[in-house]
Amino acid sequence: MSKKLKVALAVCAAVFALAACAKKGGQTTAPGGNSPVLAVVNGTNITADDFKAEAAALNPYAVSALKDPKNRQKFLENIEDKQLIVQKALDMGMDKDARIVSELQRLKDTLLLGEFVKKEVLDKVNITDQDAKTYFEQNKANLGSVRISHILVPTEQEAGDILAKLKAGQKFSALAKQYSLDDKTKNKGGDLGWVTWAQFGSASLKDAAFKLKPGELSGIVQSQFGYHIMKVTDKKPAQESDFAAIKDALKEQIAEQKKEDLFKSYIKELRAKAKITQNLQNLGSVSLAPAPTEAPAQ
């Protein structure tokens, strides 16, 4: 689970019909709910909520087109067509197919995971301006600006080799000129100049850089561009006047950390109560698709 705790909830286009099964009759609102019924297909209701859920998957231009009554009716007919196909598939017993059953179970598990994370983690974390101010006061030394140099390479192995050379005493600037992929800084020995806490776009790079003291080397840090080794050459603490500019970013960072900590505590508690066995021999025999050969986009 990443820090962002973003759960990808993949919803199959026809699953709404299975989830809404047994909505019988020709009522103008769905039984047990307040969503108006827009159509009834062989006894199964298609409600306004169903319509909105389907429309949510469209791009903004297509949603705008639904303001036209003719387009809106055509879209409803498309939903009806989906329902007809789903009903036919059910009549043919396709819902009993082992692959379908397995996929539906995975979808259910994903939805349950997302709902749990939302209710028990995301919705329970609320960071105030005072929380951000307290954090700022306690961490001024690491929220100001740093003068930093870096070496960017495409693979972790190459980064490891360079880090070993640095620890053996070779000069950072010379290795940056020789190996770094960053054309803007390599000829300056990797020097990025002064960078403020707010300017760092990459959370992983920011976290690593601002923990360093002047003269210290980072470990190997991965970003979307590749693998970095960083060196801080100078550092300035944050000033009181800096707080307003970084308050919102601080609140987001604090919230993400609290979400991660809360999620980990749930996992730790669940594991402590669970009975789990592993068959590592079988795990080793699982065949996986080959990794893509394309280099990461820069």
Q: The biggest beta sheet, please?
A: 4 strands, antiparallel
Rounded to an integer in angstroms, the radius of gyration calculated over CA atoms is 27 Å
Query: What is the helix/strand order?
Result: HEEHHHHHEHHEHEEHH
3D shape: elongated
> Going across the major beta sheet, what is the strand order?
4-3-6-5
End-to-end separation: 24 Å
Low-pLDDT sequence parts: 1-27
The percentage of residues in β strands lies in 5-15%
Look at the helices and sheets and give the structural class.
alpha+beta
Average pLDDT level: 86
Q: Tell me roughly what share of residues is in helical segments.
A: 40-55%
Number of helices: 11
Describe the overall structure.
With 298 residues, this protein is α+β, with helices and mostly antiparallel strands. Among the domains are: 15-123, no CATH class; 145-236, Chitinase A, domain 3, CATH 3.10.50. It has 11 helices and 6 strands. The chain has helices at 15-19, 48-55, 60-65, 69-91, 98-120, 129-138, 156-167, 172-179, 203-209, 243-273, 280-284, and strands spanning 37-41, 44-47, 145-153, 191-196, 221-223, 226-236. The strands form 2 sheets. Strands 4-3-6-5 form a 4-stranded antiparallel β-sheet, sandwiched between helices. Strands 1-2 form a two-stranded antiparallel ribbon. Strand 5 (221-223) and strand 6 (226-236) form a beta hairpin. Helix 6 crosses helix 10. The longest helix is centred in the C-terminal third of the chain and has 31 residues, at 243-273. The chain is elongated, with a radius of gyration of 27 Å. The two termini are 24 Å apart.
